[in-house]
Write a structure and sequence with these properties.
The chain is an alpha/beta fold. It is built from 20 helices and 27 strands.
C-alpha cells in the first residue's frame, strides 16, 4: 500500500536522537550564568544521571536489537544499527561538552567563590594528613584489591560502580605486567572535604584518594600507571510474566541479574595507559565507540554530592515555600470542602501536603469505609504508604503496586511486602501492562448517611519528595461521573473487568489512543467547516506515529497547534504543506515539567483534559493510563488562563524546535527588534511569585509580553471567560483492544 505524504520518514525525528537534544537543553542550564553557580553544577550532574539511564536502557536495547538482527525501523526509517552509528557520534560530542563545561566554566567560577576541587598533589601537609587519616580509618578497611591472573579472574564489576585499574609489575620479576582492579567503596561519600583556610571550601574526590594510596594495597608490585573507570551495563528487565507464578518474585530475581548485565559503555580517565584501556575493552567485549574518555572526574553524577555538601546557600536557588490549601486539620474538613467544590492543585507551587492529607484523613476518618490506590513511584519514607498501612487495620484497603517502575523496582517490592504484612490487599497490575495511572478512590459514609465516592486523579506520582520539584496537577473531586469511572478502572486493574466506556475518562490500552486521535480529527473537521479550532498540548514526550499523523492532518486542515514538549519529540514542525501550523517549544528550568494537559478548541466549546499519559506508544498501548476531562468550568479557566497561557510568554527558558531538529531560543523577526522588547520572563519564577502572594496571573505579566500574547492564536481561547458548553461532549470510543 502506498503511504500518504505525511507518513514519509523524513517527517519524523528519531526518538533517541531527539532525547539527546533534550539532554543538551539541560546542559544549557549548566552553562547559563543567570542560574546560581551550584545549581549549574547540579544541572551538569543531572545530565550525567540522565545519560546513565539512557545508556543502560535505550542504548543497551538498541545494541541488543542490532546484534540479534531483528530490530524494526521506526517512523523515521532508521534501523537500530543506523541509530547507533548516529548516536555514537552524538554521545561522544555530548560527553566532551559536559567535561568542557566542568573544566572551563564551572571549576574556574567555583574557584572565584573560594570553592575548589583539589588534586592530591596540590594538598598542603596539614590537608594531606587529614586525607591520610580518613583513608586509613574509613577507606582502606573497605578495600579489596584484585590482581588479575590465572588464579584470580577478572572481578565482577557491578553496574556503574566506580573502580580504579592499575598496571602492575612484580618488583622481583620486572618483565610481566598484570592488571589490578579495586572498587571504590560505595558506602562512602563521593567527595571528601579537606581542611582549608578561613572562608575557603576545598574537596578531593574519593577516587583520587584511593589512587593516591593504592600502593598500600599492592605490596611487592610497582604501580606503572592507574586510572579510574566505570562500566555501564544493560539494565533492562526481561520478564516472562505469562510463565511466572509470581510477578513479585520474578522482578526480584531479575533485579539481581541487572547488576551483572552485559557491558554497554566504559568510562575511563582521559590519558589512561593504552594497555589498561585495551585490557578493559577486551574483558568487557566492547567496541572502540563504546569507550568514553573522561577529561575530569569519572561519573559526573557525583557532583550531586558536591552540591549537597557545599554550605553556600548564596550559590543556590532561594528556598521556595509552596502555597498551602487552607483547610482545618480535622479529617472531615477536607471532605466537606471537596463536596462543596472540586479542588485543583498545581504542584509544586501548590503544596503536595493536601494530597497527603487526603489519604491520611481517609485513614483516620472512621466514616471512610474503603481506600483504593495505585502506586508507581513513591518516596523511601512515604507518609502515603504509612497511612495506607495504618488504615488496613480498620477498613478495606486495596493498592495496585507497579513492580516494574524502572529503577524503583526494589523499593516497590519492599513496599508491596510491607503493605501485605499490614493487611492491605496488594495487586501488581495486569500481565504485560505497567500500571502508570495516578488514582486514589475513597468510599465514605457522609453525615447524612449517604455513601459517596471521593477521588484523586493526578498527572504525577504519589511521591511527596519529587512533588517538590516536579510540575504536576492534582484533582480532588466527588463528581459522580468521574468517581464512578475511577471505580471501573480499579475493577479493570484487579479483575480485568472491561467497561464499554468510561464516561469522562479515556483509559489505555482500551480506548485512549483512539480517543486522542478522534479529538484531533474533530478539530480538523471544525477547521474545514470554518469553525474555531485550536489544539494545545503539554506533554513530556511526543513519539506516537498515529498521533503525529493526526496532528499533521489537523495542521493541513487549518488547525493552529501549540505543543509544549519537554523531552523527545518525533514530530517535525514548520514543514510547508505538512506541519506549517504546528509550533513546538520545550521548557527546561528549576522544576521538571511533568504535567500533561490537552486543550481542544472544539468549535468554540473548549474542552480541557489532564492525565498521566504522554503521546507515546508505550503510554497509549502498553500501560494502564488515564486522561480525564475537567468538568468544572472554573477549573478549566484556571488551567487555560492561569497555568497554560503564561508558558507562551516565557522568553528565558523556552526553546523552539526548528524543522531541522535543532532547538533555539525565542526567534527574532527579520530586520526588527524582538517583539518582547528584550523583556525577560521565566514562567517558573512567575508561578513561584504568584504562589508567594501575588494575585491576578495574566494581569501581572509584563506589558510587552501581554501585547505579544494578544497576537497569538492561543490567546483568545486560553484567556476566554468560560460558559457552559452548547454541544454534548465527545463520547469516548467503545472499548477496543
Amino acid at each position: 500500500m502506498r503511504r500518504s505524504t505525511s507518513e514519509h520518514p523524513r517527517f519524523f525525528f528519531n526518538r533517541h536522537l531527539s532525547w539527546l537534544q533534550f539532554n543538551r537543553r539541560v546542559l544549557e542550564e549548566a552553562l547559563d550564568t543567570t542560574n546560581p553557580l551550584l545549581e549549574r553544577v547540579k544541572f551538569l550532574a543531572i545530565t550525567a544521571s540522565n545519560l546513565d539511564e539512557f545508556v543502560e536502557v535505550r542504548v543497551a536495547g538498541l545494541l541488543q536489537q542490532a546484534e540479534q538482527g531483528h530490530g524494526e525501523t521506526g517512523p523515521d526509517g532508521l534501523a537500530p544499527g543506523e541509530v547507533l552509528a548516529q548516536l555514537s557520534t552524538g554521545l561522544h560530542e555530548f560527553v566532551k561538552d559536559q567535561y568542557d563545561c566542568w573544566r572551563e566554566k564551572l571549576v574556574p567560577a567555583l574557584a572565584e567563590e573560594s570553592v575548589r576541587v583539589r588534586d592530591f598533589r596540590q594538598l598542603k601537609p596539614e590537608a594531606r594528613k587529614a586525607v591520610e587519616r580518613f583513608y586509613l580509618e574509613h577507606v582502606e578497611p573497605l578495600m579489596t584489591p584484585v590482581t588479575v591472573d590465572p588464579a584470580h579472574p577478572f572481578p565482577r564489576v557491578l553496574n556503574k560502580a566506580l573502580c580504579v585499574a592499575c598496571l602492575l609489575q612484580r618488583k622481583r620479576k620486572d618483565s610481566q605486567t598484570f592488571l589490578g582492579v579495586v572498587t571504590v567503596p560505595r558506602a562512602l561519600p563521593r567527595v571528601f572535604r579537606i581542611p582549608s583556610g578561613e572562608g575557603a571550601i576545598e574537596y578531593i574526590f574519593l577516587h583520587d584518594i584511593v589512587e593516591a594510596y593504592i600502593e598500600r594495597l599492592y605490596h611487592g608490585y610497582k604501580i606503572l600507571s592507574s586510572a579510574a573507570f566505570r562500566v555501564t551495563r544493560n539494565s533492562n528487565l526481561y520478564l516472562r510474566e505469562e510463565e511466572s507464578r509470581s510477578i513479585l518474585d520474578s522482578v526480584d530475581l531479575q533485579l539481581h541479574r541487572r547488576r551483572k548485565g552485559a557491558a554497554v559503555r566504559l568510562e575511563i580517565e582521559a590519558g589512561a595507559d593504552p594497555e589498561i584501556i585495551e585490557r578493559l575493552r577486551s574483558n568487557f567485549r566492547l567496541a572502540a565507540g563504546q569507550i568514553f574518555e573522561a577529561n575530569g572526574p569519572v561519573n559526573l553524577s557525583r557532583l550531586f554530592n558536591f552540591y549537597d555538601q557545599t554550605p553556600r546557600p548564596d550559590l543556590k536557588f532561594p528556598p521556595f515555600a509552596p502555597k498551602e490549601l487552607r483547610v482545618p486539620r480535622e479529617p472531615r474538613a477536607l471532605f466537606k470542602l471537596i463536596r462543596e467544590r472540586d479542588v485543583l492543585l498545581h504542584h509544586p507551587y501548590d503544596s503536595y501536603s493536601t494530597v497527603v492529607d487526603f489519604i491520611e484523613s481517609a485513614a483516620r476518618d472512621p466514616d471512610v469505609l474503603s481506600i483504593k490506590q495505585t502506586l508507581y513511584r513513591t518516596s523511601e519514607d512515604s507518609p502515603i504508604v504509612r497511612a495506607l498501612m495504618d488504615a488496613a487495620a480498620k477498613k478495606e484497603v486495596t493498592v495496585v503496586v507497579e513492580l516494574k517502575a524502572r529503577f524503583d523496582e526494589a523499593s516497590n517490592i519492599r513496599w508491596a511486602r510491607s503493605l501485605q504484612e499490614a493487611g492491605v490487599q496488594v495487586y501488581h497490575g495486569l500481565v504485560g501492562l505497567k500500571t502508570h495511572c495516578k488514582l486514589a478512590l475513597l468510599v465514605r459514609r457522609d453525615a447524612n448517611g449517604k455513601v459517596r465516592r471521593y477521588a484523586h486523579l493526578g498527572t504525577g506520582n504519589y511521591n511527596p519528595s519529587t512533588a517538590r520539584f516536579y510540575t504536576d496537577l492534582s484533582l480532588l473531586t466527588c463528581n459522580r461521573q468521574i468517581t464512578e469511572a475511577v471505580h471501573y478502572v480499579f475493577n479493570f486493574l484487579t479483575a480485568y473487568s472491561e467497561q464499554a466506556h468510561y464516561g469522562p475518562l479515556s483509559v489505555a490500552p482500551l480506548n485512549l489512543g483512539k480517543n486522542c486521535v478522534s479529538l484531533i480529527d474533530r478539530e480538523a473537521a471544525h477547521a474545514k467547516a470554518g469553525r474555531p479550532s485550536l489544539i494545545v498540548a503539554k506533554v513530556n514526550s511526543l513519539l506516537d506515529k498515529g498521533i503525529i499523523e493526526a496532528l499533521y492532518r489537523a495542521s493541513q486542515a487549518g488547525v493552529h497547534i501549540e505543543l509544549i514538549v519537554r523531552g523527545a519529540c518525533a514530530l517535525r514542525p514548520g514543514v510547508r504543506g505538512i506541519s506549517s501550523r504546528i509550533r513546538v517549544r520545550s521548557v527546561v528550568g528549576r522544576f521538571l515539567e511533568h504535567s500533561r494537559i490537552f486543550v481542544f478548541g472544539n468549535g468554540g466549546n473548549t474542552e480541557v483534559y489532564l492525565g498521566s499519559a504522554d503521546w507515546m506508544p508505550r503510554n497509549l498501548y502498553e500501560r494502564v493510563e488515564v486522561i480525564f476531562r475537567l468538568k468544572n468550568l472554573a477549573l478549566c479557566q484556571k488551567v487555560c488562563s492561569e497555568i497554560l497561557l503564561p508558558y507562551f510568554a516565557d522568553t528565558q527558558k523556552a526553546r523552539f524546535l526548528s524543522p531541522d531538529g535543532q532547538y533555539a531560543g525565542l526567534p527574532r523577526r527579520r530586520g526588527l527588534r524582538s517583539p518582547t522588547n528584550g523583556t525577560r520572563f521565566n514562567v517558573q519564577q512567575f508561578f513561584m511569585a504568584v504562589a508567594q502572594g501575588q494575585d491576578g496571573l495574566t494581569a501581572s505579566l509584563p506589558l510587552p509580553l501581554m501585547e505579544k500574547l494578544k497576537t497569538s492564536p492561543v490567546f483568545e481561547v486560553l484567556s476566554a471567560r468560560w460558559q457552559a458548553p452548547q454541544e454534548p461532549e465527545l463520547t469516548p470510543s467503545p472499548t477496543a483492544r
